[in-house]
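Fig. S4 source data, part A: sequence.
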Amino acid sequence: MKKIVKFLPIIFAIALSAFAVSACKEEPPANPPAPVSQNLEFRQTEGGYLVSGLGECTDSEVWLPTEHEGQPVIGIAASAFYDEDGIEKLHLSSSIKTIGAFAFESCNHITEISVNEENPHLKTVDGDIYSKDGKTFVLGAFWKGEALAEIESGVEKISPAAFYGCGLIEEVSLPKGLKEIGAHAFQNCVSLNKINLRSSTVQSIGAQAFKGCINIKTLTLPSGLSSLGEYAFSNCTRLRSVVFGTGLTSVPRGAFEGCTKLETVDLYTKIESIGESAFSSCYFLSSVRFSNVLEEIGAWAFLDCRTLAELDFPQSLKTIGNYAFQGCDYLTSISLPALVETVGNGAFFGCRDLAEVSFSASLQKIGQYAFYGCKNIAEVELPATLNEIGENAFVGCTALSRAKFIEPSGWSANEQSLTLTDEEMSADLLTEEYVSYTWNKA
């Protein structure tokens, strides 16, 4: 018993030492912090920083940080990783809220983009990136190379450039309730040939949303569509027909520019204006049905629509813009409605087959070069309301032999008074002697 008591202090000291050593050991964290790539480029913005480029980072697997210089990293800037072929995987931190348009354009070796599970703003579904609430489709998994792009139900908006350049997508299934397709959303999806726009609930299509989708052949816009962006369907080179819904009131600038195979356009809805270059370079466009409320045709709207042979302008039309029908080679006759007061500069420039022109009774101005090179016009009757003819308006009209001025008095050109009672002489003055001057009526 005495021996046991003798050794008790020693045993107690050893136990106490072991406990102390055990207490000094740190428990490993339950969720170790994610790695962070170094030497990335950043740009300061409201609320924090955007990742603006790869900088000197050489990682093939890039991990975005949550902070930079003590402030949150809240997004990826537009075109941030453009043409960075060295990136194979990219991980978005929990602080990332936004991804700018074209952020990963020409990143041809990416195989994965993931979102931190603790991110309260974004999430991934089958590789695609959505807003956390599922209402916005942010970025398509372009690296998967799938032919069918399916978008989850509940999505109301497709973000700008979400599918930009996804060259293998052939079909897109749009969910019910979708309201907005962002700018550039499907631009250069060169294999896309099927998209259910007609039966969709889409209200807005952004600028260049389908530009360069060269395999779309027919298009019927939804009845609820009220906003169409500039150049939305430009360079859809196999598109053959377009039918507009009842919600649009204008065709924006360049909307169908360069749709070289487009043959028919039906605007017989509520279209009040056609924007600049809306249908320019639609070489095979032969039939256009205008709406009966159309008031304005913009500059270059039908430039080089070479096979457009007939125009039936509605009585509501007021303005024909500069060079609106330049190069419409097959156009043979036009009749300007009563409300048209100005024919824009070069409006019918080079319409080589144009032979008959009927001017409106309220016409006030014919712009310079308006009928340049219309070599088949034989005679014109100019209304009493006309008070200005621009320089070279009828230059190259080699067949014009009679020009009847309803009000022949008061005209001058190059500070010279003109006598316009003789129709043949008037034609000669219009096409030769005073062709390079602006004519005015006092």
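Fig. S4 source data, part B ends here. Confidence is low (pLDDT under 50) at residues 1-8, 10-25.
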